[in-house]
Design brief:
This protein is an alpha/beta fold. The chain is built from four helices and five strands. The chain has helices at residues 11-20, 60-70, 90-109, 132-149; strands at 2-6, 29-34, 50-54, 74-77, 116-119.
């Protein structure tokens, strides 16, 4: 089974990659996509199980390239901007947290791929906060739930 971990450079992705390496007999290939090297650069992926590819989830051409190169059976989407309690540019949060997810949904839904898409989200998506980050995470959850009802697998 081929996995694509979208957002492997983040906190969750870093820990997930470390854990998955212990179960390598269950996987054919694990491709780790990253945008920045925050946690990612500290992982040692010296075996043939892992490979990496840089992907800007907010750019549909980058998403297409990533999917065409990795040919995943399962996509684990956990890409996200960082949480900042003080107001930041809402466009950055929307581009990654909402439109980035939408790019993966749309491309997998409208392509030859028969890929399972799993979405991991933040606790900030509970709807209780009104900062840009939390609102974008809530919108991403709403998007995923809506798309799930109309045909993504």
């Amino acid at each position: 089974m081929r996995f694509l971990l979208v957002g492997a450079s983040g906190f969750i992705g870093y820990h997930l990659v470390k854990k998955l390496g212990k179960f390598e007999q269950n996987f054919e290939k694990i491709v780790c996509s990253y945008f920045s090297n925050d946690y990612f650069s500290t992982l040692s992926m010296n075996n043939d199980l892992f490979s990496s590819i840089k992907c800007d989830v907010s750019d549909i051409e980058s998403v297409k390239l990533t999917l065409n190169e990795s040919k995943p059976d399962v996509i684990l989407f956990m890409a996200s901007t960082r949480y900042f309690p003080k107001p930041r540019n809402s466009r950055d949060h929307e581009n990654v947290n909402v439109f980035g997810l939408k790019n993966f949904i749309d491309y997998t839904k409208n392509s030859k791929f028969k890929t399972k898409l799993i979405f991991l989200n933040s606790g900030a998506a509970d709807g209780s906060k009104t900062d840009y980050y939390s609102l974008s995470k809530t919108r991403a959850s709403d998007l995923f739930q809506t798309e799930k009802k109309v045909g993504i697998s």
